[in-house]
Design goal:
The chain is α/β, with parallel strands linked by helices. It has 9 helices and 14 strands. Strand 1 (48-50) and strand 2 form a beta hairpin.
Amino acid sequence: MNIEELKDFVAVVRAGSFAAASEETGVPRSTLSKRVQMLEASFDLRLLERSTRKLRLTPDGELLLPRALQLTAEADELERLMRDRSLEPRGRLRVSVPMMLGQELLGGLAASYTARWPETEIDVVFTDQRSDLIDDGFDCAVRIGPLPDSDCIARPLAWSHTILVASPNVIAERTLPDEPESLLDWRTISFAPRGAPVPWLLENGDRRADLKPRSTITLGSLHAVREAAIAGGGIALIPALVAADALNQGALVQIMHRWQGPASGIFIVYPSRRHVSARLRAFIDLLESILTETMPRASGGAQSVAEDD
């Protein structure tokens, strides 16, 4: 016995015939007849007396009908309930985010997310290690840069560049540099996440420059690099997202606008395009709206692309 067989049994009894039930439900008459027969076979009982003119419930059918009505009504209510739950974000979302992006955005985003959808909870793990989404129990991950092949779905959200910035006081000291090599004569602040400073790779159309400035300040955090630049420590090369608020507030100024680091895509990565939960859809939409306030929109939709979970 299954619920569809019970529903068809109820529909036939209510309509008074297989033909009338077929018209009301849109289910072929032959299908209705077969399902009622399967229901009878599952009980090893005859439920309907069939004639050329009408149907009549057997005593066993009369016993079953009120219970079938109750069960099918409860099944319909359960279906409506679960459908509503699938449309409204609720439950716990677990997200893996790179340290830089997480520190910059995810605190405020998490607060906005749970305030907008009170029946949700969010658990954000800041890590620069590539996690296995399924094995580590993540609903999704935010990735920056090229993604190796995998079975995951990756949806591009925005493009990220590194840009050259300095405090207004620093750039007021002397004439601004106009070529990358001129930067070597300035005080600079380098990012060294693993002890060794990251080279400054800059592009201007077809032109490229790969610099290794002898920085007076070397720091292991992009946020610390930004704060040192705001404090007048020198010129820094940092992601536009990290610099955005300071630029808007006038605490930093972008210099040499035509020279930027190579563009890197920011992606949201999740295990499958099927059965994407409402809480995940809501998170993706909110993250995308925040990113588009500060970054150019990435082109293209969700696709099966690189991800080394």
